[in-house]
Amino acid sequence: MESSERFSEKVFLNGDTYVGNFKGIFPHGKGKYTWVDGTVYEGNWEEGKMTGKGQIFLPSGATYEGDFSGGYLHGFGTFTRPDGSNYRGAWKMNAQHGLGRKEYHYSDVYDGLWKEGVQEGRGRYAWSNGNTYIGNWKDGKMCGRGVMKWVNGDLFDGFWLNGFRHGSGCYRFADGSYYFGTWTKGLKDGHGTYYPAGSKHPSLRRLCSCDKYEGKRKGLLSHSSSLNSVECRVQSPIVKRSFSEKISINGLLRGSSLRSHRTTSLDEGWSLGDSTREFSSCDLPCMLTHSSDGGQHEVEDNASVVFEREYMQGVLIKEWIRKSTGLSYKSKHRRKFYTKEMKKRSFVDIFEGHRSCYLMLNLQLGISRNLRQLFKLDAAEYMMSICGDDGLRELSSPGKSGSIFYISHDDRFFIKTLRRSELKILLKMLPKYYDHVKDHENTLITKFFGFHQITLTGGRKVRFVVMGNMFWTELRVHRRFDLKGSTHGRITNQDGIDDSTTLKDRDLQFEFHMDKLLRESLFKQLNLDCMFLESQKIIDYSLLLGLHFRAPEQLPGLEPPDALHKHENLHQTDDAISQEFPIPPKGLLLVTHEPSSVSVAPGPHSRGNTLRAFSVGDQEVDLLLPGTARLRVQLGVNMPAQARRKLSQEETDSEDAELYEVYDVVLYLGIIDILQNYNMKKKIEHAYKSLQHDPMSISSVEPKLYSKRFIDFLEKVFPYPQQT
Q1: Each residue of 125-137: pLDDT tens digit?
Q2: Residue range 434-442: average pLDDT?
């Protein structure tokens, strides 16, 4: 028979106390429970669990008053934090779930649906500065259809994904102008239509009647007031746990823990600042025409002007005027004159005096938006590297082809001018190049990030390509080699060699021994890359090889090391590297890969898998340099090896024994110069030089032979590990 309820006070062995009604040994009915940490619950109990109406006080000063069920915040209730923020609404097992209102201590307010502690479903968020968003949410982020309105009067109505404008939408600016188009991850992307302020074009009346709907529609969105490529991304809330005190009465109240699950706190990290108009000259509607006398005249009659626009990754790449029906002869003639003048003029003329803006526009386009995404290259970082205030540096010596080379101020990118023949080769191979780099993440072939053309005043065209700098590395490169596998003319003048000199095939006196699996990965990709280049009839390419010596002071001609490269701070945290430790004469360790211990940001090869090593049990590995750094090992990046050089008899006292110098080195490598095909000029060069030299020693040979000779040479440079 069940025990009847009784009122009692009990002190538990752990120091907790309970005053109230009991049913048997369990609290049941009204009661007050106090934990030793200061947490207090006062309210209804049911067989040892908080159930019904109640109030809980936490040591932090936070309080909850409302419904409980089975030991959880469950039902309807109000949770108040000591900073003044509060949530009032539905709960499910300690998490906001259902309809609720949250007021933040910085005066932002969210009204709407919640799911497991985060905003999900329909809701309205109002910022303290007056900006508002009404629309759909998912996992705490604006997602789906929604309307956002800025306090300055701008309004966006469209689709969102993970806090970004994504999909179709309509911008309405405070001045009354409109833009209808599509967005990708917050950036205008694709075709769109811009209607200037005051436009009375018939298509605008059909497409939009925001003024009628404002206040009537279920969602009012504000569009970004910025027309330039830097779109605003609304930041997502930071998820915090409210409390997770384990409630246990001497072990009797199992299952009544106050778990918060995914209780959300927007107390930090989520606020949308005021939207200010930031016009870029690259994105302004072209409202000026140029007359024959060189003057400029404003395009009149904006009521009938409609601008069709084409964007790529937030950059306006094309703009033209759509003809409108019902225009007067004078207006039609004016539009015709304007369009004709625009076609005649180059972008350099349009942006005269703003060349940097024009360069910035071109650089944002590149060969293809998908290529830079493939290479995991951030568009903003690309822009800042190429177009930053520090500008570009011209390299002291031009290439053999006569091309001019520049390097970005942060050393991340090379810019090379192209000959017309190279341009044709690049454009022809581009589709297959894209397929190759897409299918082979570890490819060693040059990464092309952008291809651009500028028409200078006078009509001269300059074409250039942007490539990654393979030696933008964590460690300093002490020696660099350009290896083709040929011998004729492949030696460097030995005077004045330093770590910036690029040596050639016959200068290389080392062979490099590396882990079995690392070597297999290297030659698997080398063969794939050479097969691709052979299919495109490409020759004259090279393996650019950079060496970091762990004890360069022992190598003749090398200065004592500053072990880490000047750019490594771009990749390493402050505590990951110390230049105070002396560098041991040897010491390269392969250890199991730990993503949290190394930089996983795109490096000189932009992407690629973490390699596996035979010596570490076929596991992904990092390179540990004792006292210096821990680096992620990728194909062509941070690959450890032993460099061995056979000593001559003049360098040893022994005539019989073979002696070697051995150095611990870190390798950086990739395939460069891939824009020369085996054309008639090269065939003639081969025939001519073959009369004077061994045909196999000259660089210019047919593609299949070039590829085989290239691989055969590298197999000698990186010999297969000897069986032990």
Answers
A1: 999 999 999 999 9
A2: 91
Dihedral (Cα; 265, 266, 267, 271), 10-degree rounding: 170
Look up the pTM and report it. 0.53
CATH topology of domain 8-195: lipopolysaccharide transport protein A fold (2.60.450)
Predicted confidence (pLDDT) per residue in 35-59, tens digit? 999 999 999 999 889 999 999 999 9
239 by Cβ neighbours in 10 Å (0-12 / 13-18 / 19+) ranks as middle
Identify the pLDDT of residue 83.
Answer: 92
Q: Measure the CA–CA gap between 518 and 638, rounded to whole angstroms.
A: 11
Instruction: Report d(CA 609, CA 652) in Å as an integer.
Output: 43
Paired strand residues for 297: 289
**The pLDDT of residue 228:** 30
Average pLDDT for the chain:
75
Tell me if 410 sits within 8 A of 567, measured CB to CB.
yes
Q: CA 720, 446, 389, 230: dihedral to nearest 10 degrees?
A: -120
* Domain boundaries of the chain, sorted by first residue: 8-195, 353-469, 479-551+588-595+605-651+658-723
- Closest C-alpha to 30, from 61, 11, 7, 3: 7
Name the fold adopted by 353-469: Phosphatidylinositol Phosphate Kinase II Beta (3.30.800)
pLDDT at residue 295, as a whole number: 38
pLDDT tens digit string along 513-557? 999 999 999 999 999 999 999 999 999 999 999 999 987 666 655
| Average pLDDT for 246-272 | 33
Helix (H, G, I), strand (E, B) or coil at 57: strand
Q: Is 135 helix (H, G, I), strand (E, B) or coil?
A: strand
Nearest to 139 by CA among 122, 123, 118: 118
CB 119 within 8 A of CB 112: yes
Distances in whole angstroms, Cα of residue 223 to Cα of each of 7, 160, 286: 62, 11, 21
Residue 73: which pLDDT band, with cuts at 50, 70 and 90?
very high
3-state secondary structure of 9: strand
DSSP secondary structure, 674-718, as one string: ---B--HHHHHHHHHHHTTS-TTTSS---HHHHHHHHHHHHHHHS
Structure tokens at 393: 């540096």
Three-state DSSP class for residue 595: helix
Burial 307-324 (b: 16+ CB within 10 A, else e): bebbbbbbbbeebebeeb
Query: Phi and psi of 176, rounded to 5°?
Result: 100, 0
Bridge partners of 153?
none
- Say which CATH topology domain 479-551+588-595+605-651+658-723 has: 3.30.810
N- to C-terminal Cα separation, the chain: 81
Contacts of 429 (CB under 8 A, 6+ apart): 536, 538
Chain position carrying tokens 């009991």: 22
Instruction: Evaluate whether 377 touches 384 at the Cβ level (below 8 Å).
Output: no
DSSP 649: G
Give the DSSP letter string of 389-445.
TT-EEE-SS--TTS--EEEETTS-EEEEE--HHHHHHHHHHHHHHHHHHHH-TT--B
